[in-house]
Write a structure and sequence with these properties.
Length: 340
């Protein structure tokens, strides 16, 4: 049994460890890791008590699901919760030798079609079951339906319409028939949560931007809406793409891009307050997220076992109340932001 506290996802009855594992790095994001190293990361997560694993067919074009499934099918199925994603359907690349893997440097030679239709959702779900080699998936996430990936209002609206008029029926059937326990949506930016809630009945959102030590923009509208509807939040980019783990070092990234001078300066100020209170910056970043009552889990990624162990240790690091009070008094944290 895991000693990590568990929280329920919405009203699904599915409980997840509040500290989970995001498996995007296991798809060889930016750097390739060996099969042995990937399995060591998963084993270390299991050993510290992680029982919530999040993956996607997009991560390494299937590689992350293969790696996660290889590990999890050796564990008791009742002991863990698993989420993966829908919205892309994969097929073998026509020219594997010249296939561009993009940021998935060691990704598999499979290309995808974006598809939020009824048939596309069911195909993606069934393909994921085969890649994972598991009999069930607990949570499905509508993946990347926002401006970050599709750029224009016309494209975003077209895919939202496809989801609402076609694909949602598949997700609703899977949930009503007990084949999955909950449905979420991955959010990369502000403004999409209200649009989803106007269209479909979700159980949770997987949030990559809008709530971290550097910005609490989602407190204005998004999080109150989720609380009103009984919808949980899972935080994906716990270190805001890296800067809250490394500090404002040269090349530090924020929301998938090089951090701006303003973000670098704010990070330096937050880090200085943390140092004053003998607290590592990443410890404050992790523990802050779990203080919000709507947040069910955080799912940092890892490419080395040490990353998992370090993050788990940072969650246990004692943080004085004065740190949070200082951050608020110096204007570095919103006054209404819940703190541990």
């Amino acid at each position: 049994m895991s000693s990590i506290p568990q929280r329920e996802i919405g009203n699904t009855g599915t409980r997840v460890t509040e500290f989970g594992l995001g498996a995007a790095p296991l798809g060889d994001l930016f750097e390739a890791i060996s099969e042995e190293a990937a399995q060591e990361v998963l084993q270390t997560a299991w050993d510290v008590g992680v029982r919530f694993f999040d993956t996607s067919p997009f991560y390494g074009y299937g590689k992350s699901e293969h790696r996660v499934g290889h590990f999890l099918r050796q564990q008791p199925r009742a002991e863990f919760a698993l989420s993966t994603k829908v919205g892309r359907v994969f097929r073998p690349a026509r020219t594997p030798a010249t296939f561009d893997r993009g940021e998935w440097v060691g990704g598999l030679p499979f290309e995808f079609t974006v598809d939020y239709s009824y048939d596309g959702i069911l195909r993606a779900y069934e393909d994921s079951l085969q890649r994972l080699s598991l009999p069930s998936i607990d949570l499905l996430v509508i993946h990347d339906l926002d401006f970050y990936f599709y750029g224009t209002e016309a494209r975003v609206n077209a895919y939202l319409t496809q989801l609402f008029t076609s694909g949602w029926r598949a997700l609703d059937e899977l949930r009503r028939n007990g084949l999955i326990k909950g449905v979420g949506a991955g959010i990369n930016e502000l403004g999409m949560i209200p649009r989803f809630l106007d269209l479909v009945d979700l159980d949770f959102f997987l949030v990559a931007y809008g709530y971290n030590l550097l910005t609490q923009a989602m407190l204005a509208e998004e999080f109150p809406l989720c609380a009103q509807h009984g919808i949980s939040i899972v935080i994906g980019a716990v270190f805001a793409s890296g800067i809250l783990a490394t500090g404002a070092t040269p090349g530090a990234r924020y929301f998938y891009a090089p951090a701006s001078p303003e973000i670098m300066a704010k990070t330096d100020r937050i880090a200085e307050v943390c140092q004053r209170h003998q607290t590592p910056l990443p410890a404050a970043a992790l523990q802050f997220l779990l203080a919000h009552p709507s947040v069910a889990a955080i799912i940092p990624g890892a490419v080395k076992p040490a990353h998992v162990r370090d993050n788990f240790s940072l969650l246990q690091h004692p943080i004085p109340q004065e740190l949070w009070a200082t951050l608020k008094s110096e204007g570095l944290l919103q006054e209404d932001a819940p703190t541990p």
